[in-house]
Each structure stands twice: as structure tokens, then as C-alpha cells.
Amino acid sequence: MEDAVELTGDERAMLAGAQGEAVRRALDYQAEVGRFFGAERFVPITNAHMMGDIEVLGDAGLAFLREARDLGARARIPVTTNARCVDFAWADRLGQDPGECAKEREVIAALQAMDVVTADTCINYQTLYQPHLGERVAWGDTGTVIYANSVFGARSNFESGPAAMAAAITGRTPEYGFQLDRHRKGRFVVDLSGATLGDLADWGALGKIVGERHQNYYAVPVFTGFRRTPLADELKQLGCALASYGSMGMFHMVGVTPEAPSVEAALGGEAPWEAFAVSDAEIEAVYRGYPLGDGDCSLVVFSGPQLSLFEIKVLAGLFEGRRLHPGTQVFVTTSNGVRSAAEKLGYLKPLEDAGVAVLEGVCFYILQNLSLLRERNGWRNMISNSAKIVNIIGAHRFRTILRRTADCVDIACTGKLS
Amino acid sequence: MSAPLLTIRVERAFGPAVEGEAVVSAEGFSPRYDLDRWTGLITKPGHRLEGTSIKDKVCFFPTAKGGIAAGWAFHDIKAKGISPMAYVFGVTNPVMVQGAVLAGVPITEGWSEDPQRVLKTGDWVRVDPGRKVVELLRRAP
Question: What pLDDT, in 10s, does the model give residues A140-188?
């Protein structure tokens, strides 16, 4: 076929089955995806990050993993897993389904048998692997991809579970999208000179405003004019919100991200679609935009993405010496590594003393049985400082409300929402 | 084969040719954000298709929202028997394509005419990825 991906000799042999059926199937699948996007060739990758949990896999996905394992599929490059839907230490307390939990254990075992590192984190870019400028990887979830492209200058498309797994098995990915220079140019300019962005939630609100304005994978914003150096956790919230509200895969920030030494360089010599400013007034308007329903404060969530050690430390300070309002539940999710460090450093105790649940290896919005959890607990509103989770949890029929970090803590401890 | 009443050209396409009833959305789509993956109903409160089933439908969405989940989710809902017949996107992202290819469900991106202007939910359409066209075969009764 004229638009087929051009193959090397090695790749032709792989497609002919020389390296086994698992490799043949993985490359064949990747070639089909590459053909859709007009990829001309495959490019080697160094690292993959994949989503694989029973909530999204379903029984069909588990069967797919079993079959791949039985066909001898093995990762040929380092590959890690994204957050999953069960923290086994909490499964009973949360009333999660024992049958699904057993399947989740089987998912983990199947992945491990294929040499997948089941790290179960969506902040691999903070805790596990930091690719360098120009390094090609195959990552998902979206928050990991936008961080890799934007902050590291590495190259990845949104690679969903089966795509990242195929990439790990073949050690390559089709060259399209953000693997190519031409898609990495900024498309429009956002002036932040009037924005304070003092809380992580403000960065998420910024991502919501910009993402909703251009819902397009290739709409790469160029941020300019911000008056201080942003922190990694701030760029993380911005990226996750852009990817969530706009399905965007990359942003530039002039003087901050490596492919944006200037506005002109970030735009790659082309004229921007538009330029606009986001200032404090627009950020404030985001917070006023959430209907509060009956004012239910029974669920406050710090999750989506998992919290860094620094975020946990801040939360520990805010909850120190306080107690949750009766009837309110608070969930924090993070990685095993961060939780272990937080425990050792004494950051967990103030949280647990206050009544906060700190889960590891999961993200709140993908928890197995979440709709049932909502019904059992009578949760109507979900309050969070993460714009991403506020956007993403809708199918479970929550009314969601974005608030700043300290406000979320106050709501959790006073039971008063305003 | 009857002559189409209208032809929309698409830019990119995968999968076998299929026919089905159109669901034309004014809003983008994510299986994770918007869909109950056990019933096939769009359940996100306030989604412009809230309460609509996508099962066996040819779904027209202007954009893709989010999200990495579609990679596995399209395969999962196909196995559960609640998959759309085809996904027709104005602008999509790689995840939707990776998911549709895994599931073997047709998917297209880019259109010569905005379906919201020329099609209605309930119209009977054919998606032919090989010819890169979507054709209107019968108007909704």
C-alpha cells in the first residue's frame, strides 16, 4: 500500500514472525496506527509508560494481556505502569469488589511476567525517569506525555495502554505527531504577565481556560510573560489540565521550557493563530463557575495526578492539628515511593491524625467501583484542587468543584463550602 | 447499493466499511469522562448527549477529549457488546485511533463538511474507510 510505513530489514523480519508471534502482532498493530497518521517510518524509543488496570482493561483487556504473555511477549526497553484502580490495603475498607481485585492482581502478575515494572504511578516524570531533550519515548497517561514533551523536550505521543505496551515489546514507535518537528511548534500565545498563579489550583484553572479554548491535540500554547520561575508541581498541574480540557500534547513557556528560548523560536517562525492574556480576573472567574448544589462537603480529594513529596508536605502542614469535619472524607493519592518517603519523614502522621486517607499506586477517579462508592457514601459533590480530576470524573455523576489547596483543607475541616 | 444523498470526504481512516444510524454530537468525547462503560450511555452531567446510547451507532464527534483510556476502553466496550459501529471525528488524538485499531472498529478524522450542518441524529449513514468517505443513505424518518 502506498501510504504504508516504510520498514527496515529488521522490521520486515519482525512482521514475518522471526521474533515470535507477540512481536509480530505488536508491530503489525503499530504499523496500522502509523498508517492512519501517515507515519513514514518507525523510530527507536528508550522508555515506555503504560496504563493497564482492570477498571479500564475490562475482562477483554485482561484476556488480551494473558494471551500476550502466553505468546511470549517481553518488554525490550524499561516500561513502567500508570496508576491503577486498587490499593489492596484499602480495598476492603472502600468496599471494592473482591472479584475485580483478584483480577487486578492477575493483571499485575501478567504485566510482571512480561518484564513490565509495575510502579503504578502517573508521576513517573517526577519520581522514576526524566528523559532528555530530543529523547524518544512512548508514554501515557496524558499528563506524563505533555510533561515529557514540554518540560523535558523529549518526544512522545499520547500512547494508550496497548500502544505503549506494543512499543515496549518492539522497542519502537511510528513516527508521527510529536515525534516530528513540525507538530512541536507553538500555535498561539498566552500572556501571563497579569497572572499571579499562587496556588496549584490556579495553574489547573489556567489549563482549563486555555485547553477549552482550543480542544486540539496539536494546538500547542506558548505561555509568555510570567514573572517568576514556575515550580515542577505547578507545571505538572498546568500540563495535566491542558491535556485534560484541551487534549493537548505539548506547551511551551518562554524562558522555561527547552524549546522556547523566545516566542519566535517557540512559534517556529510561523504566525500565531491568536494571542490573548489570562490574568487574575479570569482565574477568579473559574472558581465562581461551579454550582455548589446543596453545599455537600462530604468528599474532598487530592489526586489526579498523584501528589509529589512536596505537595504531601504542604498538605501535612495545612492539616496539622486539625480534624476532618464529621461526615467528611478526604482522599490523597500518591505513588508507593512518595508515600514511603512521606511516612519516613513524618508527613503522613498529621494527615492520618486528621482522618485523611492516603492511598498509594492509585488515582481517585479510576478507583474500582467508584460509582458504587459514591452512592454508598451519599457523595454528591467532589471538591478538589486538581482541575484535571474536576473535569475527568464526570461519568461517575459527581458534581465537581475546583478550590485552592488551603480552601479545600478548610472545607474538609469545617464542612462549610462557599 | 443505493446512491448516497450526500457524501462527506474524510482525511484519514481505518477499518472495514459499515452502515448504521448516526449520532451527531455538538460536543467532544472521551470514553472515560463521558461514558458509562457498562451501559453504553453518555452519563456525564451536562454533556450535550447526556442519556444517549452509542451502542451500534455511527458516532460523529467534533473533537476528542482527554484521555488515555480509549486505548483499552474501545476494546472493552466492543467485547461487552456496547460499541459504536464507527467513530467519525473532526479532530481526534492518537489514543482514539490506537483504541479503535485494537478494537477493529472503523475510525476517521477530518471532514469536508461539518456533520452538524448536514446530518441529524437518526440519519442512516455508511462509513467507508477504504474510499475515505461518509455517505448519507437515508434521512431520519
Answer: 989 999 999 999 999 999 999 999 999 999 999 999 999 999 999 999 9
Bond preceding residue B67 cis, omega within 30 of 0: yes
- A29 chain-B contacts, CB cut-off 8 A: 101-102
Amino acid of residue A241: A
Same fold for the domain at A9-180 and the one at A293-414?
yes
C-alpha cell at A311: 505537595
Residue with cell 516566542: A263
Residue B11 forms contact with A (CB below 8 Å): no
User: Domain B6-138 is in which class?
Assistant: alpha beta
A200, A90 in Cβ contact below 8 A? no
Please tell me if residue B32 touches chain A, with a CB cutoff of 8 Å.
yes
DSSP B7-39: EEEEEEEES--EEEEEEE-SS-B-HHHHB-TTT
Compute the distance between CA of residue A250 and CA of residue A219 in angstroms, rounded to an integer: 8
Q: Give the three-state DSSP class for A228.
A: coil
Taking the CA atoms of A115, A84, A204 and B98 in sequence, report the sign of the dihedral they define: positive
Q: Which of A36, A51, A59 minimises the CB distance to B12? A: A36
Phi, psi angles (nearest 5°) of residue A182? -65, -20
Does pLDDT of B108 surpass 50? Answer: yes
Looking at the complex, does the CB of residue B28 fall below 8 Å from at least one CB of chain A?
A: yes
Per the CB < 8 Å rule, is B91 touching A215?
yes
DSSP state of B141: -
> Three-state DSSP class for A173?
strand
Give yes or no for A293 touching B (CB within 8 A): no
Which residue of B65, B77, B101 is in closest CB contact with A33? B101
Structural domain spans, chain B: 6-138
Q: Who contacts A228 (Cβ-Cβ below 8 Å, separation ≥6)?
A: none
Say whether residue A160 is in contact with chain B using an 8 A CB cutoff: yes
Which triple of cell numbers denotes residue A25? Answer: 502482532
Query: What pLDDT shows up at residue B1?
Result: 58
Provide the pLDDT for residue A228.
97
pLDDT in tens, B25-62: 998 888 877 888 888 888 877 888 888 899 999 999 99
Give kind and range of the element (H or E) at residue A337.
Answer: helix A336-344
Axis-axis angle for helices B70-79, B94-103 (nearest 10): 30
Q: For B66-111, what is the HEC assignment?
A: CCCCHHHHHHHHHHCCCCCCEEEECCCCHHHHHHHHHHCCCEEEEE
Parse chain A into domains and list their residue ranges. 9-180, 185-287, 293-414
Name the architecture of domain A9-180. 2-Layer Sandwich (3.30)
CA–CA dist B31, B55 (Å, integer): 13
Please tell me the class of the A293-414 domain. alpha beta
Kindly list the residues from chain B whose CB atom is less than 8 angstroms away from the CB atom of residue A60.
Answer: 75-76, 78-80
B97 in A contact zone (CB under 8 Å): yes
Q: Cell 506558548 belongs to which residue?
A: A222
Q: What is the interface pTM, i.e. ipTM, of the complex?
A: 0.95
Q: CA–CA separation, A143 vs A254, rounded Å? A: 20
